[in-house]
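re: the backbone from monday

yeah here it is again, tokenized this time
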């Protein structure tokens, strides 16, 4: 985030569209945006300028930009569906930045579109429920609950229902039908949240009857998918395919070797900060995003050297507290979702096959680490500890394809274990 930028000219007048573009371009260059990125942004500006010329518009307005985006790109700035495409995020940021510049606000790096509110018809019931629920769960779970209840309330409104007491079985069945393309586990998760909400509504006298009985879970046979596994040789080929002679390669190699050697999840990798590395002890410690539990792991030499090489010769100059940053300005932390295409790029470069059920996700490193350690007859409790599992049973799912090693695996803990 940078300081505030204003649109008043030195003579006190307001900037027209072209002057606003010029001011924004100067800002982008001052914070180190790549020339290719600036040219891409300028192309969008030029298309917008032609649109404004046809409409007789001289000054910038975000609502006009929203109309342009919908007409020219088919993008709705005020829709809140997930996931957003790369183009949607880019176009939104192009015009949101202009809006921030014109308003004298700090120009942010946030790529999210405006959040869609819960329909006002049900907000007085849903909001207090979310406040109570949010005291018991992580933010990610609260966000999921809010999204579920927003979609449910939007469906009810489409059905002409403006009072929860109007809900009957066909309404619940109809909403469940909108989820038919989701996995059975996801469907049940949504319906469980709705059931819990209806219990809350009755307990707090928002409804005259307990409607939760209308919501039932759908029975299904859970299918356990075989994990994506890569041999140690394949992993070494993937790592060797990274060109470490440039900043991006140094960053990607450090990320990949962290995941390969230690099995750290994507969300935990992008959240790593300088304080998580205890160099004097050759350890890395962090709170796992998924479990909230502290995890401490030994830092192998090749992993530590890769991270140091990135910090010294690859990481952009930045006051960001996170280790791994975007290669182009603004130099903010990577998002966990960006690590999948990173691994996919190098897996393809190493000519690794991803025939089903194998996938190119970074999570495959966790499965592979468990399986490869099991092949070396490392006890399951040790493998569980490395992966940050609270229960050994969880680790058996990761390593379930290696039944022979599971049978031979002893439960005695060794005094020394090399990662």
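seq for it, each position gets an aa:
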């Amino acid at each position: 985030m940078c300081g505030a930028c204003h649109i008043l000219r030195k003579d006190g007048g307001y900037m027209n569209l072209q002057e606003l573009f010029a001011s924004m371009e100067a800002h982008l260059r001052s914070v180190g945006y790549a020339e290719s990125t600036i040219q891409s942004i300028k192309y969008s500006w030029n298309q917008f300028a032609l649109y404004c010329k046809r409409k007789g518009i001289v000054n910038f307005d975000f609502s006009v930009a929203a109309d342009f985006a919908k007409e020219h790109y088919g993008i709705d700035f005020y829709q809140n569906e997930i996931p957003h495409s790369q183009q949607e995020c880019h176009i939104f940021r192009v015009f949101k930045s202009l809006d921030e510049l014109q308003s004298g606000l700090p120009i942010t790096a946030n790529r999210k579109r405006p959040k869609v509110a819960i329909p006002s018809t049900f907000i007085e019931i849903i909001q207090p429920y979310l406040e109570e629920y949010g005291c018991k769960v992580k933010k990610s779970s609260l966000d999921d609950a809010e999204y579920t209840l927003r979609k449910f309330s939007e469906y009810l409104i489409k059905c002409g229902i403006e009072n929860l007491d109007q809900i009957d079985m066909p309404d619940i069945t109809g909403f469940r039908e909108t989820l038919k393309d989701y996995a059975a586990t996801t469907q049940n998760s949504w319906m469980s949240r709705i059931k819990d909400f209806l219990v809350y509504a009755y307990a707090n006298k928002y409804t005259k009857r307990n409607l939760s009985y209308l919501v039932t879970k759908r029975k299904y046979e859970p299918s356990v998918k075989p994990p994506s596994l890569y041999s140690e040789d394949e992993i070494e080929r993937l790592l060797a395919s990274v060109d470490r002679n440039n900043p991006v390669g140094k960053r990607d190699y450090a990320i990949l070797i962290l995941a390969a050697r230690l099995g750290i999840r994507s969300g935990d990798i992008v959240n790593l900060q300088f304080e998580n590395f205890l160099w004097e002890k050759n350890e890395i410690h962090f709170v796992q995003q998924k479990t909230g539990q502290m995890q401490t792991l030994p830092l192998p030499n090749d992993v530590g050297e890769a991270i140091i090489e990135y910090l010294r010769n690859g990481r952009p100059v930045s006051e960001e507290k996170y280790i791994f940053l975007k290669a182009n300005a603004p130099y903010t932390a990577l998002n966990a979702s960006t690590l999948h295409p990173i691994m996919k790029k190098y897996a393809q470069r190493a000519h690794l096959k991803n025939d089903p059920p194998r996938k190119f996700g970074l999570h495959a490193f966790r499965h592979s680490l468990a399986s490869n350690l099991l092949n070396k007859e490392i006890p399951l409790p040790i493998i569980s500890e490395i992966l940050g599992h609270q229960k050994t049973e969880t680790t058996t799912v990761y390593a379930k394809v290696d039944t022979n090693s599971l049978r031979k695996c002893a439960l005695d803990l060794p005094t020394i274990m090399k990662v």
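The longest helix spans residues 35-55. DSSP finds 17 helices and three strands in the chain.
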